[in-house]
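Hello,

Following up on my earlier ticket. Below are the two sequence lines again, exactly as submitted.
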Amino acid sequence: MPKVCCCLSSSQAIRSSLMAGKPKLYYFNGRGRMESVRWLLAAAGIEFVEEFLETREQYEKLLQDGALLFQQVPMVEIDGMKMVQTRAILGYIAAKHNLYGKNLKERALIDMYVEGTRDLMDLIRVHHKFSPEEQEKNLALINERATARYFPVYEKVLKDHGTEFLVGNQLTWADVQLIEAILMVEEKVSTILSKFPLLQDFKTRICNIPTIKKFLQPGSQRKPPPDESYVVTANRVFNRK
Amino acid sequence: MLQGTHTPGVLRKVFGGTHRNLKRGSMSGKPKLTYFNGRGRMESIRWLLAAAGVEFEEDFLETREQYLKLIQDGHLLFDQVPLVEIDGMKMVQTKAILSYIAGKHNLYGKGLKERAFIDTYVEGTTDLMQMILTLPFSPPEAKKKNLPLIIEKAKNRYFPAYEKALKQHGQGFLVGNQLSWADVHLLEAILMVEEKEPTVLSEFPLLQGFKTRISNMPTIKKFLQPGSQRKPQPDDKYVATVMKILKEG
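Thanks for your patience. The regenerated structure is below:
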């Protein structure tokens, strides 16, 4: 009987099967920059585990162990890599799970669209760090950008493209990030979609996709908007004032 | 698939397709870059095209009227530059443009994991270069304070990571065994920081070797010579032009 060709020793095989396990997310117990990663994994139907940073010691251990390439989180252990840099992580997940279009030009469209939604979400991501007066100004900016710069674009893409999705004819990273952005803005300005009928339909449709519907239900790994304790924890971990 | 010429559709903003839009695009087939006459966010794109040996044309924004006309004519998806007209598309968003060029010109590695490494590395160099490119637009006290912080980050956060990456990878390049977007971006970042602090690589022997090697690659060597489309460091005039055009501050 021919020897079974196995390039892995048994301990390597065990390690490799562990490596093939669920992605592990290292971040605070809150949205921040990791939330888009949770959304994309969830949309792709990928189960993941999370380790929440609560103390400075945890963070310093990660640093000492050389786990954080640029000393920063998010960090995601996935397929034997310790990935950092949100955009890189998202790009990897999207490509791996068929959410990055079918060719270079579809990728280009997806890249443009996710950069736009990312810019919009960045305005919201930092909102809680501001003083009340600054928050008022920021809210006006969020409203203005959403209604005058970003949502008109996506409304027109849906109109011109004529399929249910932003790119191609199946769900991509661009759709997932857009739904995340819509819901995030709606939390701040509940009527934000009032002038965008196609985005309203898009929202309904995408929210009903089984994996996304599941993620939107209570008990999922989706995180709530940041509160005071989130800010306090982040400051403590990073030794900020 | 393309919308008619009557309604200004978003796909028309991206894919052109009307006579008016085609007239705007490059007649030579070369990519056409629309930006201010200076580095800013477009410089990385100039670097990458040059490294890939791709000739390109440039249209410089000099007045607010030019900028507003671009917006009115529907050329800017999110009302922002950089804009690169390439392969029938009007691309915006620097990262998207760079990824497309890298993908097209074999500078994005071989396979998902090499892409992942390249993406991670360019995000790091982007963060570092972003600090420098925004510096001229901050108030004088902030500039004085921030420059040493940037040098400190370069020496303690970024360059050690790339030094280690080169050491562990053991090849002349950051990823795989040929030039990639990550290498071009890193060289750009090194030179940019050195302009501020010439001795910044003193403790990074592998990066010194990397700098020499990559600078000597023919397409890059050419880009580094006077008369190329590489732009000089921003001066007060550049800052004033940008602020005037974007009506900021």
